[in-house]
């Protein structure tokens, strides 16, 4: 664990992680570490296992049929793959934001208050404060402060994605997993989400999956290149983009990939 200001932020350590869908391997013996407060970007061609990797970290993987997972994953004090881990607590600590904004069909306020209510916050003053703080952290407050009782569906796609980030932040996670969070957004909205990731940096340990290499270069501290379920190379972002060690990484980064 590392301490950033008042917050304690966990490291992530992955050892010998392999995943199979049926008999088909999707991740092969992945070993990596993300330090507390770092942003890791995972890049790689379609189908290389990026989303599978994220799904292991908050145990969403187990919702799928015929999946087998081996190895160990530690996030702070969670032994993630242990049978006895408290999955609800784990998912509260490890928040996730998906490719397509998926607000619940309810008001802006209720979207953000949803998690805190589930976790037992009943006081309306405390709920209002949590909603306001989370919307501020997600850089959405100024745009929605006068219309919290409107349906989340009235927001633009980019605003909806920031709402989903606010909803994830409202339960006070320590880790944020972002699965192509800007893939469905226009360039202006994407830039806002990227700015937000940079602002949130170091307060959370973050992993972002992205197909946008410039985005990976702009927001991350470290980059991991996956190919066909294997971790080919991981290193500091600048090193990976300027002097990758592996030929496959270089070919991918320069678009000479088959
Ligand atoms: N639910 C599933 N059942 C069976 N196979 C799956 C399932 N989900 C993913 N796979 C397979 O596992 C491999 C890794 O998929 P994954 O979605 O993790 O890759 P990805 O790198 O995130 O791809 P993309 O960039 O296209 O989103 C692929 O071959 C995919 O077809």
UniProtKB/TrEMBL annotation:
Q: Does the keyword Translocase apply?
A: no
Residues in ABC transporter domain copies: 12-253
**What InterPro entries does the annotation carry?**
AAA+_ATPase, ABC_transporter-like_ATP-bd, ABC_transporter-like_CS, P-loop_NTPase, PstB-like
Q: Which UniProt keywords apply?
A: ATP-binding, Nucleotide-binding, Transport
Q: Which GO terms describe its molecular function?
A: ATP binding; ATP hydrolysis activity; phosphate transmembrane transporter activity
Q: Which SUPFAM superfamilies match?
A: P-loop containing nucleoside triphosphate hydrolases
BP GO annotations:
phosphate ion transmembrane transport
GO cellular component labels? membrane
Q: What's the protein name?
A: Phosphate ABC transporter ATP-binding protein, PhoT family
């Amino acid at each position: 664990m590392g301490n950033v200001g008042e917050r304690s932020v966990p490291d992530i350590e992955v050892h010998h992680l392999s995943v199979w869908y049926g008999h088909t391997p999707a991740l092969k013996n992945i070993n990596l570490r993300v330090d507390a407060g770092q942003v890791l970007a995972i890049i790689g061609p379609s189908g290389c296992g990026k989303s599978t990797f994220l799904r292991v970290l908050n145990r969403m993987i187990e919702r799928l049929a015929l999946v087998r997972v081996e190895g160990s994953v530690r996030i702070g004090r969670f032994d993630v793959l242990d049978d006895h881990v408290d999955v609800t607590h784990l998912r509260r600590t490890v928040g996730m934001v998906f490719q397509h904004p998926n607000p619940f069909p309810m008001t802006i306020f209720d979207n953000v208050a949803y998690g805190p209510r589930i976790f037992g916050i009943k006081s309306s003053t405390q709920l209002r404060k949590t909603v306001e703080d989370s919307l501020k952290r997600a850089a959405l407050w100024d745009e929605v402060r006068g219309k919290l009782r409107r349906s989340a569906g009235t927001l633009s796609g980019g605003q909806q994605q920031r709402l989903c980030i606010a909803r994830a932040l409202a339960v006070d996670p320590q880790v944020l997993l972002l699965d192509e969070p800007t893939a469905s957004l226009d360039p202006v909205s994407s830039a806002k989400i990227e700015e937000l990731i940079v602002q949130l940096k170091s307060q959370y340990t973050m992993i972002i999956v992205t197909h946008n290499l410039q985005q990976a270069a702009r927001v991350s501290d470290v980059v991991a290149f996956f190919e066909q379920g294997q971790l080919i190379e991981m290193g500091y972002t600048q090193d990976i983009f300027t002097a990758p060690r592996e030929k496959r990484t270089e070919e991918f980064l320069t678009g000479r990939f088959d």
